[in-house]
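Q: Sequence in, structure out?
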Amino acid sequence: MYDLRMCVWEITLACCFSCKYCGSSGGKAREDELSTIECLNTADQLHELGCRRVSMIGGEVFMRRDWKEIVTRLTGHGIRVNIITNGFIFREELIRDLKDARIESVSVSIDGPKAVHDKYRQEGSYDRAIAALESLLSAGIPVSVISTLNSENVTFLEEMYSILRKYSIYAWQLQACSPMGNAANNRIDFAFDMAGVIDFVISHMYEAPFAMGVADNIGYFTKAEGTIRGNLSGDAYFRGCSAGITSIGIDSVGNVRGCESMYDERFNEGNLRRESLRTIWEDPERFAYNRKFDRSLLTGKCAECELGEYCGGGCRSYNYFVHKKLYESPFCAGGAKKG
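A: Exactly. Output:
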């Protein structure tokens, strides 16, 4: 039986932006998004399956009026909740609501210095994101920053570091922009030197006043693998895609995926309006791309890599949207040949 530890839950597609590289093409709420009662029931089902942590995303979470009620239901079950926000509509009144809901942390999306961030999001969005970050920190709420990298903003990492080091944030996560949704429609130049990003993290992670790391779609198995994912223990190495193994994604209309970044109907394993989460999660035939993985499925350079059975070819979502090959990482920064 698989142990559900983590859920990424998109509670609405409504957003104050329609960012040029938004993978879910957020903006307007779907007409048939889960009701408050359905969301509370979903929170109960996550608890029943033993889920420990939920990352709540949109759209923009705070555009859903019942977000606090949903979060409170989750935290009432002892589930730790992190909210990811663009910070644009953040108001001081939200601080009290976040504390009342017993939120664990908030992550603010900042994708570059002011001119670069605003170019991909909206004029004035950088200043508001920084203001939200400052308000959260002043209130004693743990804050992280997430930066989505493409070929342009990756060149501003040093400048970004000099900005962020002024703040007592908890962590800074760097993730690769995936060519899906708006990023694909706008033909964003998403590719960059992942080894260079890893070198950047290595050059600062021991001196940084916060944790630094790369997400699961950047890697893999360079010499610094055990430390570049936000944990300096040396043991924080990539263990393969967790979609359908220890993690799950739920979208705003109740579709269940192994990972919410696998934003394609082919990865829908069921819908919560037709089946229980337990039925979907415990069905041995679902999430087959990971649950039935063996190294014979690896292709390209990943098939030749002696670490392939551990890495599994990297991030399924990123692989799929870049070149439709689930078991082959297109831009692996590490690895090793067999023999």
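Residues 125-138 form the longest helix (14 residues).
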